[in-house]
Specification:
Layout lengths: L3 E7 L2 E15 L2 E5 L6 E14 L5 E14 L2 E6 L2 E3 L5 H17 L7 H20 L5
Helix pairs in contact: 1-2
């Protein structure tokens, strides 16, 4: 079976490093799936889940990625993320608290949507929802 190495790095360090048969992510232009022997490519990523089909355990891993860049070259798929968190590491209570704070900020600022604070709250909400969705795909 063909395989590639998948590495996800964030400012906090290495988040993920395993062999895989497929990676799915969301680039700014839309969803992409990467298979072994993919043509070299560099893409900017949005806030979304990255799904990785592992070789060694025949399972999928999920990582919440909050923007960054995906690069594929020589059967290595590297993601340098603004921030990233594996499903098993997500503190779901904290994610719901962040979601609630972001929603409250957006309600408070709803009359002035061009406001920078409103945009920040919207991004925070999107990140919290991404973490909540990814956390539902935890493996025991």
């Amino acid at each position: 079976m063909a395989e590639m190495r998948v590495q996800i790095v964030a400012p906090s360090g290495v988040i993920y490093d395993h062999r895989a048969s497929m990676v799915s992510a969301r680039a700014i232009d839309g969803d992409i799936s990467i298979l072994p022997n993919h043509t070299p490519i560099i893409l900017p990523l949005t806030i979304h889940a990255v799904r990785i089909k592992r070789i060694s355990i025949d399972a999928e891993d999920w990582v919440a990625v909050n923007g960054g860049v995906l690069e594929v070259r020589n059967n290595v798929c590297s993601i340098v993320a603004d921030s990233a968190e594996r499903a098993r590491d997500i503190d779901i209570e904290r994610a719901f608290e962040e979601k609630h704070r972001a929603e409250e900020s957006m309600k408070r600022l709803s009359g002035i949507k061009a406001n920078l604070e409103y945009k920040r709250a919207s991004i925070s909400l999107h990140k919290a929802l991404n973490r909540i969705n990814v956390s539902k795909n935890k493996r025991v």
